[in-house]
Amino acid sequence: MPDDILLVEVTDRIAVVTLNRPAARNALSRDLIDTLIEAVHACDADETVDAVIITGADPAFCAGLDLRSLSGDPSVGRPLRLAELPSDLFADVRTPVIAAVNGVAVTGGLELVLACDFVIASERARFADTHARLAFLPGWGLGVRLAEAVGTRRAREMSITGNYVDAATALTWGLVNHVVPHEELLPSCRSIAADIVSNDPEGVRALLDMYDREDAMITGAALADESTRFGEWIAGGGGSADDIARRRAAIEERGRAQQQASGTST
C-alpha cells in the first residue's frame, strides 16, 4: 500500500487529514478507506489532538468509491467489495471532525462529508449523490443524513437526479456551515478548530456525545434500516463488478460534463 495516499499533519492540537490521490480525484480505494478510518481513530486516541480536519488534495475533495477498484481493475490494488464496507466510517469517534471541502464531493465523498460534525466549503466545492447512476444503494447513512441536512424533498431531488449542487446552493440548503474563498479554506477551518481547542476538551467531547445520543434516538432506527437494505441489496446481486464495469464509462463522462458546465447547480 502506498504510504502517501493519506497525509496526516498535527500542529497546535489540530490534525489535518488529507486524502492524497489527486490523479484519481481522491476516489476511495479499499486501501484509502482502511487508512482513513485508522487515521481518524488514531487521532481520536491521541491526547495531543483536540480537533480533526478532513480535506482532499486539489482539485477534488473526494469523487466517491473508486469505480476501477469496484470493477476489479488490478491496477488499483486490493479490490473493493461492497459487502466488506464498514457500516459507519467514524464509529465511536469523540474528537470533533470538520470536513474542509475543497472541490467535488460525490456519492461516497458526500457520505464522508455527512459523517463529519460540520462542513466548511471552498467556493469551488460541488456536491452530488450519484447512487442512482450506479444502480446501488448508500451504505454509510446518506439516505438519512442528507435529508436531515437539506430536507427530504431536496435530498430526494439530489438522489434521484444525480445532479450537482454548487457551494452557494449547498450553503442555502444547509448542507454546509460556511463557504469561503478557496485559498482561505484551510486557514478558516484551522481558525474554527482553534476555537474548539481553546475549550475544555472533555466538555467538547461530552457535548458531541450528547448530540450523538440525541441524534441516535431520532435516526438510529432509520440508519439501521438503511444498513440492512444495503446488505440485502448486495446479497441479492446488486452492485456486481460486471454491472459497475459496464456503467463506469458513461458515469464518468456524465460527471465530467456536469462539472464543466456553469457554476450554477444542475
Topology readout:
Elements: E1 6-11, E2 14-19, H1 30-45, E3 51-56, H2 67-70, E4 97-101, E5 104-106, H3 108-115, E6 118-122, E7 126-128, H4 131-134, H5 142-150, H6 152-161, E8 165-166, H7 167-173, E9 178-180, H8 185-197, H9 201-235, H10 241-260
Helix pairs in contact: 3-5, 5-6
Descriptive account of the structure:
- The chain has 266 residues and is α/β, with parallel strands linked by helices.
- It has a single domain (6-183, 201-260), classed as 2-enoyl-CoA Hydratase, Chain A, domain 1 (Alpha-Beta Complex), CATH 3.90.226.10.
- 47% of the residues lie in helices and 15% in strands.
- The chain has ten helices and nine strands.
- The protein has helices spanning 30-45, 67-70, 108-115, 131-134, 142-150, 152-161, 167-173, 185-197, 201-235, 241-260; strands at residues 6-11, 14-19, 51-56, 97-101, 104-106, 118-122, 126-128, 165-166, 178-180.
- It has a six-stranded mixed beta sheet, sandwiched between helices. It has a three-stranded mixed beta sheet with strand order 5-7-8.
- α1 links the parallel β2 (14-19) and β3 (51-56).
- The longest helix is centred in the last third of the chain and has 35 residues, at 201-235.
- The mean pLDDT is 89.
